[in-house]
Amino acid sequence: xxxxxxxxxxxxxxxxxxxxxxxxxxxxxxxxxxxxxxxxxxxxxxxxxxxxxxxxxxxxxxxxxxxxxxxxxxxxxxxxxxxxxxxxxxxxxxxxxxxxxxxxxxxxxxxxxxxxxxxxxxxxxxxxxxxxxxxxxxxxxxxxxxxxxxxxxxxxxxxxxxxxxxxxxxxxxxxxxxxxxxxxxxxxxxxxxxxxxxxxxxxxxxxxxxxxxxxxxxxxxxxxxxxxxxxxxxxxxxxxxxxxxxxxxxxxxxxxxxxxxxxxxxxxxxxxxxxxxxxxxxxxxxxxxxxxxxxxxxxxxxxxxxxxxxxxxxxxxxxxxxxxxxxxx
Amino acid sequence: xxxxxxxxxxxxxxxxxxxxxxxxxxxxxxxxxxxxxxxxxxxxxxxxxxxxxxxxxxxxxxxxxxxxxxxxxxxxxxxxxxxxxxxxxxxxxxxxxxxxxxxxxxxxxxxxxxxxxxxxxxxxxxxxxxxxxxxxxxxxxxxxxxxxxxxxxxxxxxxxxxxxxxxxxxxxxxxxxxxxxxxxxxxxxxxxxxxxxxxxxxxxxxxxxxxxxxxxxxxxxxxxxxxxxxxxxxxxxxxxxxxxxxxxxxxxxxxxxxxxxxxxxxxxxxxxxxxxxxxxxxxxxxxxxxxxxxxxxxxxxxxxxxxxxxxxxxxxxxxxxxxxxxxxxxxxxxxxxxxxxxxxxxxxxxxxxxxxxxxxxxxxxxxxxxxxxxxxxxxxxxxxxxxxxxxxxxxxxxxxxxxxxxxxxxxxxxxxxxxxxxxxxxxxxxxxxxxxxxxxxxxxxxxxxxxxxxxxxxxxxxxxxxxxxxxxxxxxxxxxxxxxxxxxxxxxxxxxxxxxxxxxxxxxxxxxxxxxxxxxxxxxxxxxxxxxxxxxxxxxxxxxxxxxxxxxxxxxxxxxxxxxxxxxxxxxxxxxxxxxxxxxxxxxxxxxxxxxxxxxxxxxxxxxxxxxxxxxxxxxxxxxxxxxxxxxxxxxxxxxxxxxxxxxxxxxxxxxxxxxxxxxxxxxxxxx
Amino acid sequence: xxxxxxxxxxxxxxxxxxxxxxxxxxxxxxxxxxxxxxxxxxxxxxxxxxxxxxxxxxxxxxxxxxxxxxxxxxxxxxxxxxxxxxxxxxxxxxxxxxxxxxxxxxxxxxxxxxxxxxxxxxxxxxxxxxxxxxxxxxxxxxxxxxxxxxxxxxxxxxxxxxxxxxxxxxxxxxxxxxxxxxxxxxxxxxxxxxxxxxxxxxxxxxxxxxxxxxxxxxxxxxxxxxxxxxxxxxxxxxxxxxxxxxxxxxxxxxxxxxxxxxxxxxxxxxxxxxxxxxxxxxxxxxxxxxxxxxxxxxxxxxxxxxxxxxxxxxxxxxxxxxxxxxxxxxxxxxxxxxxxxxxxxxxxxxxxxxxxxxxxxxxxxxxxx
Lengths: 329, 672, 369
Known about the structure:
The complex is a heterotrimer.
Chain A: H1 2-28, H2 34-44, H3 51-61, H4 67-79, E1 85-86, E2 91-92, H5 93-128, H6 133-147, H7 150-165, H8 175-178, H9 184-221, H10 224-231, H11 236-242, H12 244-248, H13 250-266, H14 268-273, H15 279-288, H16 292-320, H17 322-328
Antiparallel strand pairs in A: 1-2
Helix pairs in contact in A: 1-16, 2-3, 5-6, 5-9, 5-13, 6-9, 7-9, 13-16, 15-16, 16-17
Chain B: H1 12-30, E1 40-42, H2 56-63, H3 70-73, E2 79-82, E3 93-98, H4 104-110, E4 117-119, E5 126-128, E6 133-136, E7 142-146, H5 161-172, E8 186-187, E9 190-191, E10 193-198, E11 201-205, H6 213-216, H7 226-229, H8 242-245, H9 255-264, H10 270-277, E12 292-296, E13 302-307, E14 313-315, E15 326-331, H11 335-343, E16 349-350, H12 359-364, H13 366-369, E17 371-375, E18 384-388, H14 396-402, H15 405-413, H16 417-425, E19 430-431, H17 457-466, E20 488-493, H18 500-511, E21 517-522, H19 525-533, E22 539-542, H20 569-576, H21 588-599, H22 605-622, E23 625-630, E24 638-642, E25 645-646, E26 670-671
Parallel strand pairs in B: 2-14, 3-15, 20-21
Antiparallel strand pairs in B: 1-2, 4-5, 6-7, 7-11, 8-9, 10-11, 12-13, 13-15, 16-24, 17-24, 18-22, 18-23, 19-23, 25-26
Chain C: H1 8-14, H2 17-26, H3 29-51, E1 72-75, E2 78-90, E3 97-111, E4 114-120, E5 124-128, E6 131-133, H4 154-190, H5 192-207, H6 210-219, H7 227-258, H8 261-268, H9 273-284, H10 286-309, H11 321-328, H12 331-336, H13 344-365
Antiparallel strand pairs in C: 1-2, 2-3, 3-6, 4-5
Helix pairs in contact in C: 2-13, 3-4, 3-13, 4-5, 4-7, 4-10, 4-11, 6-7, 7-10, 8-9, 10-11, 10-13
């Protein structure tokens, strides 16, 4: 068991290192550098800059160095916990991400709770009452949630939210609370602002999970042990809840590790549309602006989280499902 | 006459005649365009107030003993402003939008009164700002600025001629900080000097006549003040807070000491740290001269500025300006969110980032959002100009045609500008060439608006046939003369100030009629700019905003700026490097225009205007850039003002050099 | 030769895997209907230009933002379908264009009428369209779903977009399929080191957030590529991510089958490796692959729309669902031209249909279950 964990850990380290290389290559792929992006940005805002100014910028950030030099500089610093400086935000990368990490986490968790809170009961219902009117209805609604492009849904809901209910447009805080210290009122303000993004983020995920839950549970319900349980006269809800549901939950455990990185990268577009101060748009912007260290750190962070998530999921699965545990032994 | 565009079949010619003729009155009928108006600077000594009053939030600090009384904060020679409509009341927060850490210009412009001079409400004459008065010597070699006695930085330290000398000697000439001298401080390649004459008098001196520097001291240029040119890693601007910045320079302590401080603050070395320290958008502790100073920096979700307790403007009753306590710009990276928030009444004043296409929606929601909309007209010639790369060589056949003046003229004649004006400018722009508005003294005459800038398909076809492009393929597109393939012109269209990719889609359809195939490539901004600088593009659509003062921003008209002159980057590089790099233009007209531009600094205003007119005549006739629609409310032109906000001019100068909204004097706006 | 009448039970035991799947699938009505809808979609793909009513690229300021137009079927009691000519006036207060039908000008709709030139099935040059308004002025036409800002007919654009979006999806899934089956198969069949390497590769690809990967790859495409080349490259890029899921499914199946008795039997009977794979193993989960494919297509379609939204995918003047959706994605469109949201309808319908079809196929793929 311990040997298995160690082997997995070693493999994970190799994967993380490969991710760092891949990340760096991806970010360096597009032509141009931050200085070019800066020129373009200035020109777009109706301002101009001279070649000498650009040259001094390049020198200041060491952009002229060859790629492998920049990579090793990045790597060696990261090992000691220095993630570098964001050229666009003109702050240390850790600070820039740190501000947004908690809000991202809050939204992800909220979306997760809504997703599971809806998907589990509906999935169970759909499986138990297969081909009932309710099953069809939930299937249809779920699929529509899956099918509507969520960036469109986000904009429409935001527009309707404003025109019909007078909700404030986008963001996670009203301007008066943005700078305020945490208070009950600010928390409530955050909650009202989170309704829309949570709904949008949850729609697609819910539909997907309902399908998985339904299919898994259907498989389990056909198992002989269920028939046995029924034959022994157990109450129906106990028959279903005692074992089949638990077994059907396996895929949830296996996906829990992925969820955070998945929501971050999956929510980039929605966050952009709704102007949410989360990590997603930060990443997109950093990529567009060729803000190397910021983009690199976020991509790496997500990659590492995925690797860790996979690892945790596997451990979780072993713990939940004795069958898997025995296989390893 | 009412604005009317009758859209019916068969009425094409009638329609175009009508919309073209009705254009100026369209706007007046809407009631959205007013006469220029604005606050006035009072110079009559009799009207200069002797007693001063201050905002309650400052009075509190004076009572608490943390701030000296207002009489000691306002200079002996303040700038006295007669508010536009009435004397204001203190207080309130001005809510606006910014779209990210790169949108520093947003706040720079609000604080642009930290330039030496500003411009009047139509952008024609320079008026005092930081400098009380100025004069240029008859030979043009010396420009002298008179500062305000007793003027102070926002931290209370005195602002004197020493701050100019400190900037010049300790920052600008330190090659560790500023790598290369700026063009504004050179004439004919020889550097100028900054000289202290006395405590409140400072001079810019050159070895040859430089009549231009006085304009550059009050515009979007290297000497355009602290907020504009000492942020984002730049160290120009003309002056700097010496008392505060000295401690960060090795000269005043030691290299080890400043590096140690830098590392303690998380920076690699003192230069990197200095770039942070002297950036007013980032460092709230930095002394500034603008009406508001940063309290929550630009790299947070809310960029908040608060009043400068030592601001040096007062109203005619002696109230220290600004009236408004705070400016709070909220971050929204998405333009749609900014526009939707505007509609919902979330902003008190906003012109930047509002899109002309949303004008109908903005107008329809005026009552609900409790705001009003005013329209300002820009004076530059083209919101959309197709910059043709006359120095292109990568494909000799394409290069041959782009440098052929008849080819360029024919392209221009193939564009139906009225269609574009209706579709993208709601009929509110002016179709025509790239030339500056007729109201400008640099405009060579009304006839140049339509020169080579009308729709004439027959003539365009005939011109293209006669230059040797008569062979066409089965789809009707003209063929290259070298290999018989279709002649394909590539357009690098960036989604930016205007929806260029869509506008070009329409133009591509129109040019089919003259057998020209435009391959419109929507390109990411950085990528497009990299290609333009490397002389790799055929056609680059962009505006020529800024060209209303040709000698301040020549880049979009002439091949003189290697970064922005998309109509000949290789020639521009040759010009800017004095022949060291790039390529010498063969076209005598380009050489002539470059020469006219080079001589401009040595000419006093009147002769300089004549030179500008000559350049415009050449530029319009040579069609290096095809003007499509301009003199419009295309950028900064749609102005949203809360009904609660008073003293905001309904119309003011929105030209580049006016640094909108600075010329509308936001210091004297107030909330009712 | 004798004719044997098979009983129902005998039929089942003699039927091939595919037949079994089909019988079971037939019972799944929703999936069947979805299948028909998808066939119709691909019919549109083939006949796009024929079904379009006006040139999807033709712009005209005088047609900007026309709302969907009503078709009148009867004229004076006779069946004579027509639309009214339109008159557009710019509102002097709000600068908004408003259109009023002109009942005096009836424009007859011709069945199989003439319109813009195109090549039917990419081969036969013609200008016959299913229906059109002939001899129309620049502002006249049938605008079933209204027009966009540039005055282009939305119906025609949607039809033409269907061609690109559905074929890019198909091509993308094709590439994923090949990669997925090949790598997943190798991984599952050989196991050991090869398996470990491929699994690490999959893990690596899945650990990199997709958007940076797309951005990096899309931005590094040579700038002088034509729309078609970019189109193909984007497909490849999308499939580069898409194959990992399929590979996992295939690997799992191969691993499970490796130990099955019938494979052992085939091996003992001396069947070659290739024969075992292609004759015995693949067919037994062929329907799983079909199901996975039809479930992968919606993901491809969504990817394409997201990429276009970010300005990374296909760009105008190409017309795809993503590009049309991006057009609808603005305050201006929502407030002034809500009909542009129609572009979402075929996207939603296609995704639904593919999902139901995939679901049905998956259920049917397990014939004895």
